[in-house]
Design a protein that fits this description.
alpha+beta; Glutaredoxin; 2 domains; binds glutathione
Amino acid sequence: MTADPTPQLWHFRVSHYNEKVRWALDRKRWAHRRTALIPGFHMRRVRRLSGQEKTPVLRLGERVLHDSTDIIAELERIRPDPPLYPADPEERARALAIEDFFDEEVAPDVRTLFWSAYIDDSADATRLATDGFGLARRVSYRLAFPFMRPVFRKVLGLDVAGIERAAARLPGHLDRLEAELERSSAGFLVGGAFSVADLTAAAVMTAILRPPEFPYPLPDPWPPRLVELRDGIAERAGSRWVMETYARHRDPSAEVA
Ligand SMILES: N[C@@H](CCC(=O)N[C@@H](CS)C(=O)NCC(=O)O)C(=O)O
């Protein structure tokens, strides 16, 4: 039996790590299928597929990959054109260091802040997590959320101290982005061309900024806390760069039915 050559992505629509992989596939115009999962209801399926519980998960031929950085590395290896890694070794190392910084330092903090706007209200959390799903899922999520809330709090650092820590670090993350932008040319973080550094920095910041080109708009109305978070950073040069990068470089979807 030959493996399906069309990659299959299991993802959370709302998530910034997932957005990295969607954008990489779309950038490379790599036709792929997507299955959206509901955060909190995803575990058994993802574990069965990949032996761990986090999304994104990508089936590529006979292999099942996870971790956005590892998936992009593999996409780049198999289909290097258009490139996401700079050709120059020093520039490539810098781009990968920026990817690592946004994945490891920034992404957990902005995710904590994003979920802090939803965690206290089961109806808001349900609207967010089950957007695009049918009534049965919405009802069961609404009933299950009070029991899942403590797990979300723990996994996402959503205690008072964790939220305060993430909020205190956010300006420093934008300082770092803006310092990288000082060294950039033509609006690209590394080497004067679009790379994994731009893709990652912009995708990670969507947790709060939500540019209109992000493929899955948040259900309206946004919780006031999220509006406040976004408005608090919207005028920063780093935030404006994220919005421009989405407007100019977020490729159309290569998803197939
Ligand atoms: N380092 C991983 C992080 C992935 C990650 O944290 N995914 C979250 C969604 S934003 C997840 O699936 N969490 C569910 C869980 O931990 O059970 C990557 O880059 O893909």
